[in-house]
Amino acid sequence: MAKQIPWDDQTDGFISELDDSLSKKYGMSIRSLLLNPSKYMGKKGLNATVGGIRADVEAYFAALLGSMKDEQAKLDSELESADTQYREIDSLITNKAATARVPYVKPFFLTRNQDKEETIVIDKYDESLEAFVGKLVSISNFVADVSAVYKQYRLGSWVFSGVRNYVLNINPPASPVLVMDNSKVIINSILDEIETSGSE
């Protein structure tokens, strides 16, 4: 049985390309380093090698993103809209929770059983949402803002916790730029761990 990779398929594709172009330069498989960092611990000059790989990863993604200026502009516009939607819906939820005396929190972390949640995804704020949010608040013990932040934009997501949890999400933008950014974060976080372990 093949070993499962600890990242998504898109990231795996980027890692394959990086492996093809960088393995000779560094005398090691980039994929192997990311999958089995313990195998390389103690190798002379490991942190310098990881620093070089990080710089090449940054250059690789910068080149890809540099050819997608129109896609980036489109994403920026969609993120601006999503952030505006977040502020409108968050204001509505805050007011409904305050009126119903239901605690409203912005937790640092919230443990959730996503198998026992019902998720509702909306495209945009409209007047019909007011009654719907009021109903969700009325059956909740508390409401938690668990929105994700991308750059300076918020991607709205709220948990209405009660006998059954309901999650209200604003439909996030779909863009290859987001996919690339996510993959770059995944790769860099593994390189961070390798550097930290290598310097101990």
User: Compute the gyration radius: what is it?
Assistant: 22 Å
Terminal residue distance:
34 Å
Tell me the strand percentage band: 5-15%
- How many strands appear in the DSSP assignment? 7
Helix share bin:
55-70%
Question: What's the overall average pLDDT, rounded?
Answer: 90
The number of helices is: 6
Task: Describe, in plain words, how this protein is organized in 3D.
The chain is of the alpha/beta class. It has 2 domains: 9-69 and 176-198, no CATH class; 70-170, no CATH class. It is 56% helix and 14% strand. The protein is built from 6 helices and 7 strands; from the N terminus they run H-H-H-H-E-E-H-E-E-E-E-E-H. The chain has helices at residues 9-26, 30-35, 46-66, 69-100, 128-138, 176-198; strands at residues 104-105, 117-122, 142-145, 148-150, 153-155, 157-161, 165-170. A 5-stranded mixed beta sheet has the order 1-3-6-7-2, with helices on one face. Helix 1 (9-26) crosses helix 6. The mean pLDDT is 90.
Task: Provide the descriptors you would attach to this structure in a database record.
elongated; 200 residues; 14% strand; 6 helices; 2 domains
What topology emerges from the helices and strands here?
Layout: H1 9-26, H2 30-35, H3 46-66, H4 69-100, E1 104-105, E2 117-122, H5 128-138, E3 142-145, E4 148-150, E5 153-155, E6 157-161, E7 165-170, H6 176-198
Parallel strand pairs: 1-3, 2-7
Antiparallel strand pairs: 3-6, 4-5, 6-7
Helix pairs in contact: 1-6, 3-6, 4-5
